[in-house]
UniProtKB/TrEMBL annotation:
It comes from Trichomonascus ciferrii. Keywords: GTP-binding, Magnesium, Metal-binding, Nucleotide-binding. GO terms for molecular function: GTP binding; metal ion binding. This is GTP-binding protein 8. Pfam families: MMR_HSR1. GO terms for cellular component: mitochondrion. InterPro entries: EngB_GTPase, G_ENGB_dom, GTP-bd, GTP-bd_ribosome_bio_YsxC, P-loop_NTPase. Belongs to the TRAFAC class TrmE-Era-EngA-EngB-Septin-like GTPase superfamily. EngB GTPase family. Residues 66-250 form the EngB-type G domain. Its cofactor is Mg(2+).
Amino acid sequence: MKELNSLKKGPSALLIKHPLKVVARAEAIERPTRRQMEATRRFFDNCNVSLSRIVSEPEKIDGLSTLPEVAFMGRSNVGKSSLLNALLYPKSSSGSVTNKEFARVANHPGYTKTLNFFTCGRQVRVVDMPGYGFGSRTQQGELIKTYLQNQRTLKRAYVLASCKEGLTELDDMVLDMLEEYGVPWQLVYTKLDKLVTKPIDVSIPTAAAKNQKQSFLQKLSKKPPIPQHKVPKQQLSLQDTETINQKVQEGLDLVQQRGNAAVFEEVIGTSSTKMLTYLGIDELRASIFQACGLLCK
């Protein structure tokens, strides 16, 4: 599948040596425990995900869902589909893929024109909303507004913004609308990998090289030493690490300064590529469970 391949291509994962801060939250918000993070990860890695519903017309939104829902929204080409693929990519303990549906990743903005409902393990529903802005249509705007006004089981809207562009005037209009409708929302930065500018080249000895040791007789025979083969690797630099940490913290400062009553004062930075090992995805999964009241005690 094209969508599946989109998760696997790209540069190899960078080694991360310095502490990365992918979440910035207000002091009043509790951090999920390690046990809660593990439970959430197990759920998403093993649950069955199905595309349960597609809605293209505002009048077909009935608001009768019984499952708690979270919605993902953002400007066209913000990386929403790639993020959802990374989020809804369950694997079994053996690493085999159990997911059957993926959000379509397109090369042009505005591809998603419908409300796509993904049901995860019969416990939570993730809604892929049409992008707004370039490439969008008036009907898509009506679809978004009608859903936000009528869906009583919507627990939180995740507003996506590119880490390089941040929130725009168009995003501000959407945030005002969320506040007007009383919909709790949370800021999620996408494409943290775009902040990586100067990876450091390092080399790691292979496992075989580490295990090769010369015996006493080999040393006496004065044979040449066994070559130590190394695998070329790249490491995230301290400068890029600090840039990422600062960007996430700035996001929290920004939403707190807005004073929006509907905001959940926690910002998550994410990367939907293996270069940064899908950074922030586990934290986003835990956030979804927290919003839906599904975190274990």
